[in-house]
Specification:
TPR repeat, DnaJ_C3_Co-chaperones, TPR-like_helical_dom_sf, 0% strand, signal, TPR_rpt
Length: 242
């Protein structure tokens, strides 16, 4: 019995390399099919995107990524749809993935740099623009790098003016930072400007600045509390409770 078992085991072991090769070929075949399916969905998604059918295009880009999670073009196109839908927060992780899979993809770097700039993340934006410029002469990236310098300077100066209680001066500088097309999605700068408005007694404009920060920052209970107090001070108890 033991001799028979050993003989059978040796026979199986001798077949292992062949089995492994067959398994590799099998998995490579499956992977090839999945990649082909991914490209098919990517192509269909592009057609729908060009036709303005964003939701349908998004579905195909989802499937393209499910079929091949290394298809950087699918991530980029899905990010493009998210941006067209106004969902920048959803687009950013996809752009991160594109840059991770294809660091030299200039257009993804540029798109991500633009998002970082709108979020007021100057260092991250500048890094992406500089990578673009390292690959090619790019007018937009050059202009954006030049734009960052005064924005960063204005934020630092506005912070000092708030400390010095020069609220009008701080608001003027923050207006230049926040208003489109600069950094409309930065919650901290809006909170700074809201504080200046509050000190000047312009409570409604303070509330207007605080309101978007409840979306820009996750679980921003502090902003809700500040708005509640401001509404109460304006005599609107119902809004305050809400």
């Amino acid at each position: 019995m033991e001799k028979c078992f050993k003989k059978h085991a040796r026979k199986l072991l001798s077949q292992v390399p062949i089995i492994l090769v067959l398994l590799d070929l099998h998995f490579e075949g499956i992977e090839g099919v999945e990649k082909a399916e991914s490209q098919k969905h990517l192509s269909r998604g592009n057609q729908l995107l060009n036709a303005g059918q964003l939701a349908d295009a998004l579905t195909h880009f989802h499937t393209a990524i499910d079929k091949d999670d290394r298809n950087y073009q699918a991530y980029y196109m899905r990010a493009t749809v998210y941006l067209a839908m106004g969902k920048a927060r959803s687009a950013l992780p996809d752009l991160h993935q594109v840059v991770k899979l294809q660091p030299s993809f200039v257009q993804a770097r540029l798109q991500r740099g633009n998002l970082f700039l709108k979020m007021g993340k100057f260092n991250e934006a500048q890094t992406d623009y500089e990578v673009v410029l390292a690959h090619e002469d790019h007018l937009e990236a050059t202009a954006k790098v030049e734009e960052i310098r005064p924005l960063r300077r204005n934020v630092n100066h506005a912070s000092k003016l708030l400390e010095a209680k020069d609220f009008h001066g701080a608001i003027n500088l923050l207006n230049q930072v926040i208003e489109v097309p600069s950094c409309p999605w930065n919650a901290d700068y809006r909170e700074m400007r809201a504080l200046a408005f509050e000190h000047l007694g312009d409570l409604r404009r303070a509330i207007s600045d605080l309101k978007p920060t409840t979306i820009l920052k996750l679980d921003n209970t502090r902003a809700f509390l500040r708005m509640s107090i401001l509404w109460y001070n304006l005599g609107d108890v119902e809004q305050s409770l809400e």
